[in-house]
Amino acid sequence: MNFSGKYQVQTQENYEAFMKAVGMPDDIIQKGKDIKGVSEIVQNGKHFKFIITAGSKVIQNEFTLGEECEMEFMTGEKIKAVVQQEGDNKLVTTFKGIKSVTEFNGDTVTSTMTKGDVVFKRVSKRI
Predict the structure, then answer these.
(1) Domains in the chain: how many in total?
(2) Are 38 and 57 in contact (CB under 8 A)?
């Protein structure tokens, strides 16, 4: 399955609680909670580029499945992680006590991030 495309956030659950759990300042949480960000994904074999635009903030991360890489987290912090593919439609990684699962189903992408007992879920649609 090729994951390439542009996707816009449609819904999100537990945004504020998750952002607080990862240390995001309250003023940034309030500014970002209603932004319907756009993610552009470019896949070339096992290599991926994610360009995430939320308001004026742009985060660009590149990785190759199964290889350690450095990525920018939503807090602006640089993290090291290894992204794995599970089955035909899931990208999974764990970093700093956070498990991230991105699942592709047709034109819908469901991203779930879990830290402790706080689960943040974001659903995006292809645009």
Answers:
(1) 1
(2) no
Contact 69, 81 (CB under 8 A): yes
In contact, 116 and 17? CB cutoff 8 Å: no
- Which 3-state string (H, E, C) describes 83-112? CEEECCCEEEEEECCEEEEEEEECCEEEEE
pLDDT in tens, 60-80: 999 999 999 999 988 888 999
The residue whose two tokens read 């035909």 is 88
CATH number of the domain to which 55 belongs: 2.40.128.20
| Predicted confidence (pLDDT) per residue in 104-115, tens digit | 999 999 999 999
CA distances from 96 to 33, 54, 78, 122 (A): 22, 23, 11, 20
Q: pTM for the whole thing? A: 0.91
Residue 97 sits in which domain range?
Answer: 5-126
Q: Are 39 and 7 in contact (CB under 8 A)?
A: yes
With contact defined as beta carbons under 8 Å apart, do 103 and 118 qualify? no
